[in-house]
Structure formats: structure tokens, C-alpha cells
Amino acid sequence: MKKIMTSLLMGVLVVAGGFGLSSQRVRAATQTTTTDFEVIPLKSGTQVNRAENFFDLKVAPGETETLKVAVKNVATHSITVYTDLRNSFTQLGGGIDFKDKVPDMNLDVSPTLTSVSKLDKQYQKIELGPEETKEVEATVTMPKEKQRGMIYGSWHFLEPARNAGKISGSGATSDYAYTIGVELRGSQYKIYPELKYEKVEPILDNGLAKMTVNLRNTQPMILSNATAKVKIVKKGLFSSQHLKTVTNQKIAPNSVFRIPVSWDMDRLKPGKYTVDVSVQGNNLWNKLPMTWKFKKNFTIKSQDVKKINAASLKKPTNKWAYVATVAGALTIVAGTAWVKLIKVN
């Protein structure tokens, strides 16, 4: 009988230990990419700070400026590089990125970079022989009326993958992109960013239900080193509270800063809410600290969250918790039987 109970107890302990080991994950190795080209900005006479490795230009109203770069193929084989001009925007959660069309921009505040610049077709596709260098040009024309703040965007360069799907070898295995910032200073450059509360709205982000607090930077000036703290509270009988903090972010000029607040895989619920937001940051040109605080009431309707809840990932059932409970119960039973057996003998 002793042998039977000992085997039972050891078997339960081994199974329970196996459940614990199964929850571990193995982290994949990071793959590196070989780059085939370099881009070197050729500074113009209107460059404000020649130490900067991007275009920081002060062009007079109505004047046209030519931007030049040298694109150098550092490989021993021929390559093709595609180029285009893009506009700045604020990413979800903060940080500046660039794309062709930015629907959130208020064109009455400032034009986009792509609306005041031109990249001829001959420069949109660059064929480079082994170790060859070519100069590429784009032009920008400042609006005739005086521009406040900045017009901000980028010049984007892309070499498509040559050996997609291969991990080894000397060739590139994924697209390689290079971006140079383009800042056009208006005649009245020294202005301050200004955040205004717009709304809170439910969204689906990477399969998760969230609410975003939308704050608009109404001025054509970057807010840097921004920290935002958000608290959303649901009112009523089934109240809840959700918090979010983002730090060290840049807010693009004339754009919307969306702060996503996670619902921890719970369903979004209609009802009345209150949101508290505080933002601290620095004006770009003089590093002056700036602070904003907003407290607003808002209502979420059933139709606003129905589709999002249906499409969002559901909180998984922790099956291992049930198994662990059963394993624990078996351990207790086996242990109790073992004690009784010892007492009997």
C-alpha cells in the first residue's frame, strides 16, 4: 500500500510541475539586414543649422529652393532606389512619422510638404551601378503669404528586397528605407504649440478594444518630450477606471495626438464617462516647458462599440488554472492518504 501511495503522490507532483514548465516561452533571434546605399544631404544656402543632418531651411515667401542629396551605392552589384516626399503626422500614442496623405491636417493652419514641393519623375526611381553615386533633386516653393511656424515632412528612400525569404547570404533580405527630415521655417517661426481637446472615441487596435483620447495640436510647431497621463472613469452602478501614461513623445505640428487607453481585453460598455488628461512637454525652438489639463464628460452609445466588441479578441479562459486546481486537490488527497497510512502503520 505504501508503494502505491508513494507512486500516486510522485505522479501528481510531476504532472503539476509539467504544467508550470509549459507556460515558458522561447524568444526568437533577431535577424539583421545588409544595407546597400547611403544618402547624403547636400546643404543649401538657406540651411539654418549646417551641423544638422537634415534639411532645416528658411525660404522667403514665394521663393523656390532646390533640395539635393547624393545617393551612393555601397554594394558591388546594381541596385534600384525609389524616392518620394511625405508629410508628418503624430502616430497613435505619440511620436512623429511620415506618409503621403494626412487627413487630420488643417490646411488653413499650414500647407503640407507635398503640396509645396515637387519631385520630378526622373528622380522617383534611381538606378545605380556598382559603387555608383548620383545626385537627386527636389524643389520646394514657400507660399506667397507669410507662413507661421513650420511645414514639416520627409524625403523617403526605399530599396526593395532582392532576396526576400532568404536568411543567409550577403544580399538584403528585407526592404531597406532611409528618411531625411525636411523642415521649412515660416517667416514667423517662433510660435508655440497648442493642444485642444477634441473627443474620446472607441477603436480597434491590433485586435484589442480601446478608447483614444484625441488632442489636436492646432499650431504648426512640434511639441517635444511630451508626457501624457490619462484616467477614464465610467459612471453608474458598474463603474470602472482605466489609466494610461505615455512618456518622451514628439507631437507633430498641426496634427492629432491620439492616446490609446487599453480595456484589458474587456468589452467596451456604453454609458457616461469622465476623462482626465494632463500633458507636459517642451516647445521645440526654445525648449520652454508647457502644460495642459483637460477634464471632460462624454457618452458612449451602444452602436459605437457593438462592431468593435464583436471584432475584438476575447479574454482567454485560463484552462491551466482549472488543471492546476485539480492537480492541487489531488496532491492534498494523496498527501492526506499518505499521512493516514503512516498513522495506521
Describe the structure.
With 345 residues, the chain is of the alpha+beta class. 17% of the residues lie in helices and 43% in strands. The longest helix has 26 residues, at 319-344. The chain starts with a helix and ends with a helix. The model is unreliable at 1-33, 165-170 and 319-323 (pLDDT under 50).
Itemize the secondary structure elements and their pairings.
Blueprint (H helix, E strand, L loop, with lengths): L1 H20 L15 E6 L12 E3 L6 E10 L5 E12 L5 E4 L13 H4 E2 L6 E4 L4 E9 L8 E10 L16 E10 L9 E11 L2 E10 L5 E12 L5 E12 L3 E8 L8 E13 L5 E12 L1 H10 L7 H26 L1
Parallel strand pairs: 2-10
Antiparallel strand pairs: 1-3, 3-8, 4-5, 4-7, 4-9, 6-8, 9-10, 11-12, 12-15, 13-14, 13-16, 16-17
Helix pairs in contact: 1-4
| Helical stretch tally | 4
Strand content: 35-45%
Say how many strands there are. Answer: 17
Which structural class is indicated by helix and strand composition? alpha+beta
Percent helix range = 10-25%
Shape: globular
Largest sheet: 6 strands, mixed
Calculate the terminal CA-CA distance, rounded to whole Å: 11 Å
SSE succession? HEEEEEHEEEEEEEEEEEEHH
Backbone CA Rg: 29 Å
Unreliable stretches: 1-33, 165-170, 319-323
Give the rounded overall mean pLDDT: 84
